[in-house]
Amino acid sequence: MKIGFAGLGRMGARMAANLVVAGHETRVWNRTASKADVFARDHGAKRAASPRDLAEKCDVVISMLADDSAVEDVYFDPDSGLLLATAGSTVLVEMGTVSVPTANRLFKAASGCGKRFVDAPVSGATKAAEDAQLLIMAGSGAAYAPELESVFAALGKRTIWLGGPGKGAAMKLGVNMLIHGLNQTLSEALALMTSAGIASETAYEVIENSAAAAPVIHYRKGLYLDEAAHDVTFTVALARKDVGLALDLAGSLGVTMPQAGLNHSILTAAGEAGYDARDMASIYAFVKEELP
């Protein structure tokens, strides 16, 4: 199958590489063209000149974009957007974390162009992306886009079909809200334990063997114990964006989420203190060193 991939960031580059490994004819596009050039050279892929070019030369196009603004540019640009393609791809998939209104808008716009759109965000960090072990939350039924079965199999360990447009986006916001809440509570717990004289490595060993342990605690251990020695996997800025989108959705549905509101305020304060580009594990340092 000819698959296009737009967005070669930390997650996207690893995901696109797995499509190549799975034998799909892969064409890539990235806002910074040099990234696409390097990827194409290193992985034997092709590079598209624009999102529209990507869509016109592929059967399925996947995008892995940072936020709603990036989606607006890539899908709706009046000169080169994905939705301008009149031939080629019949299925478009956004696998980043976007708002539910944006996912629904994409579904309607794609339908109006005779295409199918699926919001299918993923759960799992860069290692899961590299190992094709992502959980895929698809906002449709499996029968809506059967050609995605082999595509998703190359990217993840499991796909859960949620039944309709926007539901993938909503599910991802719920999952990330839990992760960012755990990040905040873990940071506070570590600050408390180390201030009480317990070594951080020992405290972490207890946590990851306790009833509170979750997969994210295991695979992010190095970042909490020695943030500077590890690559950033998920920034404070992105965490704040995700929690903000969850709060927006909650407001539109009449759901009250006081804990999420508190977590968002801490992420905002961390951003104002210069933490935005650091990994979200840096909230541990922020809690211990910056908060009064």
How is this fold's topology laid out?
Layout: E1 2-6, H1 10-21, E2 25-29, H2 33-43, E3 46-47, H3 51-56, E4 60-63, H4 68-76, E5 91-94, H5 100-112, E6 116-119, E7 122-123, H6 126-130, E8 134-138, H7 148-153, E9 156-161, H8 167-195, H9 200-208, H10 215-219, H11 221-225, H12 236-253, H13 258-272, H14 283-289
Parallel strand pairs: 1-2, 1-4, 2-3, 4-5, 5-6, 8-9
Antiparallel strand pairs: 7-8
Described by the principal axes of the CA atoms, the overall outline is: globular
Number of domains: 2
The Cα radius of gyration reads: 20 Å
Strand content: 5-15%
Strand count? 9
Mean pLDDT: 97
Number of helices: 14
Largest sheet report? 6 strands, parallel
CATH architecture of the largest domain: 3-Layer(aba) Sandwich
CATH topology of the largest domain: Rossmann fold
User: What level of helicity do the residues show?
Assistant: 40-55%
How far apart the termini lie comes to 56 Å
Strand order of the largest sheet: 3-2-1-4-5-6
CATH superfamily caption of the largest domain: NAD(P)-binding Rossmann-like Domain
CATH top-level class of the largest domain: Alpha Beta
Task: Walk me through this protein's architecture.
By secondary structure, this protein is of the alpha/beta class. The protein folds into 2 domains: 163 residues, Rossmann fold, CATH 3.40.50; 120 residues, N-(1-d-carboxylethyl)-l-norvaline Dehydrogenase, domain 2, CATH 1.10.1040.10. The chain contains 14 helices and 9 strands. It has a 6-stranded parallel sheet, sandwiched between helices. It has a 3-stranded mixed sheet with strand order 7-8-9. Helix 8 crosses helix 13 and helix 8 crosses helix 14. It starts with a strand and ends with a helix. The mean pLDDT is 97.
